[in-house]
Amino acid sequence: MTVLTSRITVEQLTALAELPENRDKTLQLINGEIVEKMPGTPYPSLIAGWIITELNIYLKTNRIGATTTEGAGYRIGDDVLAPDVTYISRARQVGFPQRGFNLIAPDLAFEVISPSDKAKEVAEKIQVYRAHGVIVCVVYPESETMHVYEPGESVRFLTRADALTLPDLLPGFALALADIFPVEDDSEGHDSTPHADSDNA
Amino acid sequence: MTTAMIQAKMSVDDFEALANLPENNARTLQLIDGEVVEKMPSNGWSSMLAAFISEAFVNFVRSGKLGYVTGEGAGYRVGKDIFAPDVAYISRARLPRMPRKGFIPLAPDLAFEVISPSDTAQEVAEKVQVYLAHGVIVCVVYPESETMYVYEPDNRLTLLTRADSLTLPDLLPGFSMALADIFPVDDADQEILS
Q1: Lowest-confidence segment of B51-60, B97-106, B161-170, B180-189 by average pLDDT
Q2: Predicted ipTM?
Q3: How far apart are CA B106 and CA A142, in angstroms?
Q4: Which of A130, A142, A154 sits opposite B122 (nearest CB)?
Q5: Domain span at residue A74?
Q6: In this structure, are strands B76-78 and A85-89 parallel, antiparallel, or unpaired?
Q7: Is B119 in contact with A118 (Cβ distance < 8 A)?
């Protein structure tokens, strides 16, 4: 049996990420391969912004944990992922390291899908999250849906009319999907559907 | 508030007429959310895996006279869409006779979508949702990671890897397909791959 490619370890990635030329990059390690997170279209980022806003409003009065945005790298098993939004409870971690990746996996991760995101990459990430007990919410801006993968054998499909609730993790929290998918009127300066940005072939 | 229609969605009837035009005879057209999406010839590897999957099902289904297995060209009406799953199974109980012309007017019982490197997450998610909304068990096969996501209409999700087998106790009692059998490993295959 031949080894086709040698896999990169988390330690090697950490060393690489600290090189001066990589300081401004968001590097992820997925299945032993380095995957750089590139700047994308603004719409998914706008949605990520709404998600984190709602979470932080809740956490301001319920001081049970913290959120991070897309730059934060989390070590999850043998991979390093940079979810768009994460929540980590105080029960698992208090404070964040000043340097390097976070060595503890988050409780909850949001991945907001860009038009160019490939199905296989998203599936690999879901697999990694699930294997390490992370609840992952995959947000599809074009169809305005959210697929919630929880450890165990179920998946929830939420649409604009639904709200995301996670009673065990975030008691009393409800994220109405209508609040994270802006309606057309909000996008001044754009004459039609802001999310139908088929900028790639 | 303006309520202007942004784009007219195509109906299944209009789509059927379009697909029947002589110039479209040789094409595999799908109707996804009112849009015509042509299924293009894909890479050999994905298609090879689809053939292995068909093989497992054809043997089981034919010997028990349970229904029909189709390959990537067959169009199924799934709600307001027409999908062309890479492999599908429909029971005789639901479709007594396979039509010789036109699309199959029903959703299959089971659909396989073998993912190509270019398939986007958004497209796949939409298909999965439409299938599930119409009672179809959908198996999404990822050749690179050698995994299969099995989504069932009651929102159960089973993630299978090379060491596992797909069983469908409610739909096809007694059926079992080892994933190792559909993801080839021998050296000859690896050479083809690289």
Answers
A1: B180-189
A2: 0.76
A3: 27
A4: A142
A5: 40-186
A6: unpaired
A7: yes
How many separate domains does chain B show?
Answer: 1
Q: In terms of CA atoms, which chain A residue is nearest residue B6?
A: A192
- B130: domain CATH number is 3.90.1570.10
The H or E element spanning position B98 is none
A123/B157 Cβ within 8 A: no
Q: Is residue B18 part of a domain?
A: no
Residue A190 has pLDDT above 50, yes or no: no
Residue B189 lies in a domain: yes
Select the residue of A31, A119, A193 nearest B115 (Cβ to Cβ): A119
Q: State the nearest Cα–Cα gap between B69 and chain A, in angstroms.
A: 25
Ramachandran region, residue B93 (left: φ > 0; alpha: ψ -120 to 50; beta: rest)? alpha
**Which among A3, A43, A120, A156 is the top mutation candidate for probing chain B, defined by the most B β-carbons within 10 Å of its own β-carbon?**
A120
Residues A71-100: tens digit of each pLDDT: 889 999 889 999 999 999 999 998 888 888
In a domain, A16, yes or no: no
The B residues from 113 to 142 touching A (CB cutoff 8 Å) are 115, 117-126, 129, 132, 140, 142
B31, part of any domain = no
Is B53 within the bounds of a domain? yes
In a domain, A149, yes or no: yes
Nearest-angstrom CA–CA distance, B78 and B130: 7
Q: What are phi and psi of A97, to 5 degrees?
A: -65, 145
Helix (H, G, I), strand (E, B) or coil at B141: strand
> Does B129 sit within 8 Å of A120, measured CB to CB?
no
Instruction: Give Dmax over CA atoms of chain A in angstroms.
Output: 58
Handedness of CA B171, B176, B178, B184 (dihedral sign): negative
Cβ contact, residue pair A145, B125, below 8 Å: yes
Q: Domain span at residue B175?
A: 42-193
pLDDT, average across residues B182-194: 62
Residues of B whose CB is below 8 A from A1: 187
- Check residue A2 and give its pLDDT: 40
Check residue B7 and give its pLDDT: 54
Indicate whether A3 belongs to any domain: no
CATH classification of the domain holding A105: 3.90.1570.10
Q: Based on the structure, what is the number of domains in chain A?
A: 1
